[in-house]
Design goal:
This protein has 160 residues and is of the alpha/beta class. It has 4 helices and 4 strands; from the N terminus they run H-E-H-E-E-H-E-H. It is globular.
Length: 160
């Protein structure tokens, strides 16, 4: 982790100097739809690492139970005081379209730690698209995005 920190810190200094938003994404894998094959674990073990890097946004997977609870991200660190969370709320590896109610519930869990302006809804890992193959069809991707947009509208009307 020290090696990663030494590599990333100068990069984020440059990003900050350019008036852009720097973000770190932690990926557990996108090569298969078999959830049991992909990596798992909560973010509590990375909290100190994230806390030690001067980055504005963390874009993290949270649409699958493999990621653990959102609360684990905020254990034993000061992240709630400094980061924006790109909250992964739709699973690109699943054909099942998330219910907007489920997305809202996930976002409200994050709102226990962060103000609304620092919670952004994202699909986990984009949509896990590779140049020669996608893990999902454009039809499913569109429906997942529609669900995420509907959830964001509900959240904005309630919290903003």
């Amino acid at each position: 982790m020290n090696f990663a920190h030494k590599l990333l810190e100068p990069l984020f200094e440059q990003i900050k100097a350019s008036d852009s938003i720097g973000s770190i994404h932690v990926c557990r894998g996108n090569w298969t739809k078999k959830e049991e094959t992909l990596l798992s674990g909560s973010y509590d073990k990375l909290g100190k690492f994230f806390d030690g890097i001067d980055v504005e946004m963390l874009t993290l997977e949270f649409s699958t139970p493999r990621a653990g609870e959102i609360s684990s991200l905020f254990e034993n660190n000061d992240l709630a005081d400094k980061i924006t969370l790109g909250l992964g709320v739709v699973n690109p590896r699943s054909d099942e379209v998330e219910n907007p109610d489920t997305i809202v519930k996930s976002a409200e869990e994050a709102l226990k730690f962060l103000p609304p302006e620092r919670v952004w809804l994202n699909p986990d890992c984009g949509f896990a698209t590779f140049s020669s193959r996608s893990l999902n069809t454009y039809d499913v991707i569109g429906k997942k995005m529609d669900a995420m947009v509907e959830a964001s509208q509900r959240l904005r009307s309630k919290y903003c």
